[in-house]
Amino acid sequence: MKVHHIGYAVNELESAAEKFHRLGYSPSGTPVDDAIRGVRIQFFEDRCGVKVELVAPLKESSPVSGWLKKNGNSPYHICYESLDIERDIAAMQEQGFMLLERPAPAPAMGQRRVAFLYSRPTGLLEFVENVHGPLDSGPERNGSLL
């Protein structure tokens, strides 16, 4: 499986962005509001190509708000690229993962569909649909996640 990014839940995007910049991450794009999910998102990348997605709540009812109340600013999820998101979701459900959000377009991902799954042993996972091959430059990969 190819990791696309690591999601970090943050209370306030600007101050977290400053700290990640000091850790060697540079912004890749500008912040994007996802009104449906109630979050503001900004991606950062280091010199090795590791991507971090900062996820801040836009409203109290945002799913990330509850996480932040319990855990504070912290890692939130791992996102994997998927060439067949429906098949990968079914395979994960067979392994006991619970589907939290069916595939739906995500503004921060260029309107590619994303889905969220959860299991107690692994926590929250995100899949991003990848219909045109690897989302990032690099070696070509074939097949699906599983």
From TrEMBL:
Keyword RNA-binding on entry: no
SUPFAM superfamilies, A to Z: Glyoxalase/Bleomycin resistance protein/Dihydroxybiphenyl dioxygenase
Gene3D superfamilies: 2,3-Dihydroxybiphenyl 1,2-Dioxygenase, domain 1
Domain VOC: 1-57
Keywords, ordered alphabetically: Isomerase, Metal-binding
Gene Ontology BP, a term: L-methylmalonyl-CoA metabolic process
InterPro entries reported in the protein's UniProt record: Glyas_Bleomycin-R_OHBP_Dase, MMCE/EMCE_epimerase, VOC_core
GO molecular function, one term: methylmalonyl-CoA epimerase activity
PANTHER family in the record: METHYLMALONYL-COA EPIMERASE, METHYLMALONYL-COA EPIMERASE, MITOCHONDRIAL
Protein's name in the database: VOC domain-containing protein
Organism from which the protein derives: Fretibacterium fastidiosum
